[in-house]
Amino acid sequence: MNAMPHALVTGASSGIGAAIVERLLRDGWRVTGVSRRPPTFDSPAFRHLALDLNDVDTIDGAVADIAPTALVHAAGFLKVGRLGELGHDDGAAMWRLHVDAAERLANALVPRLPPGGRIVFIGSRTASGAAGRGQYAASKAALVAMARSWAAELAPRGITVNVVAPAATETPMLNDPARGDVAPKLPPIGRFIRPEEVAAAVTFLLSSEAGAITGQQLVICGGSSL
């Protein structure tokens, strides 16, 4: 890694993405934060890239001059729906943001990643399946398949690719009215996951100490998987 490593982090304006940016800045990283709304980080090491990742055809051009040492794709949203009531547009939008945007970012940036580079996707514990969240779960499961495939491709370059998959986390998504009657489940530890706990796991996977961890999904579930 360089003396001052550089991470491109999506979803930087709120929730898990913002927590990751804050942690990386504190740890001495330079960060390019991608979001539609401007974040409020007051640091000379932070640059905001205004970009709507749903407009996937603009991604290549937007990152053409960026050569980071790490990519963290944290942007995401949740639309719920049970069979018989599924909204195709909702499913397509989640796939576009969670999977298509991740694919396009990685495809554009990986040729410029240095040896020892890092890719981390923010997945979800629901990737293994959850009632009422089938479309969302499918998009998050696809991240695991991509991470494992790309980890195999990139291992000879010393580049790792992993997924951090939290259970219900204290973010604006947790209380989104769009959840309808599909309420978040409280983990056995008696509280929801905190964004800073997810950020700490991401930071470790970006570190040199995690150089032997690749193609893995780290589930942060507070005991929900037990």
**Low-pLDDT runs:** none
Topology as a string of helices (H) and strands (E): EHEEHEHEHEHE
What's the helical proportion of residues? 25-40%
Rounded radius of gyration (Å): 17 Å
Instruction: Name the beta content range.
Output: 15-25%
Q: Overall 3D geometry?
A: globular
Strand order of the largest sheet: 3-2-1-4-5-6-7
Strand tally, please? Answer: 7
Average residue-wise pLDDT: 94
Multimeric state: single chain
Tally of helical runs: 5
Largest sheet: 7 strands, parallel
- What is the CA-CA span between the terminal residues? 36 Å
| Coarse structural class | alpha/beta
Describe the structure.
The chain has 226 residues and is α/β, with parallel strands linked by helices. The chain is built from 5 helices and 7 strands, in the order βαββαβαβαβαβ. The chain has helices at 15-26, 59-62, 88-109, 134-154, 195-206; strands at 6-10, 30-35, 46-50, 70-73, 118-122, 160-166, 217-220. Strands 3-2-1-4-5-6-7 form a 7-stranded parallel beta sheet, with helices on both faces. Strand 1, helix 1 (15-26) and strand 2 (30-35) form a beta-alpha-beta unit.
